[in-house]
Amino acid sequence: MVGTNEPGTAPRPEGEPDYRFTLANERTFLAWMRTSIGLLAAGVGVAYLSGFDVPGRTVLAMALVVLAMSTGGLAYRHWRVTDRAIRAGHPLPRPPMIAVLSIAITIVAAWALIGLIRS
């Protein structure tokens, strides 16, 4: 059985969501993964490549790596929950990652700034 479509779109199986929603969800997941990789690179950079002496540099690097790990894990969880909501026709969930990541990056950036000012 073929589902109903908007004019100019390809037929899709009954019960399947519009592929554009699924692909948008995938792009969002990939954006979160890029953020995770960037945080990981920042953690490695602070640990091994930084030329300035930030107080607690090792702890700062570890915080960035843990934040990268959390972002990667939460990205998958958000993708899965959103995919289920799209397929069931439910409202999309609000991602807690946005608040957590914003606060954590602000704290880490302030920590690095204080270290730069002191050095």
Radius of gyration: 20 Å
C-alpha termini separation: 68 Å
Describe the oligomeric state of these chains in a short phrase: single chain
Strand content: under 5%
**Main sheet summary:** none
How confident is the prediction overall: mean pLDDT? 84
Task: Kindly state the percentage of residues in helix.
Answer: over 70%
- Integer tally of domains: 1
H/E element sequence? HHH
**What class do helices, strands and sheet pairing give?**
mainly alpha
Q: How many distinct helices?
A: 3
The number of strands is 0
Describe the protein's architecture and organization.
The protein has one domain. The chain is elongated, with a radius of gyration of 20 Å. α1 runs antiparallel to α2 and α2 packs antiparallel against α3. By secondary structure, it is mainly α.
Q: What is shown here, in short?
A:
The protein is an all-alpha fold.
Q: What is the strand and helix layout of this fold?
A:
Layout: H1 19-49, H2 57-88, H3 97-118
Question: Which terms would index this structure?
Answer:
119 residues; mainly alpha; 3 helices; 71% helix
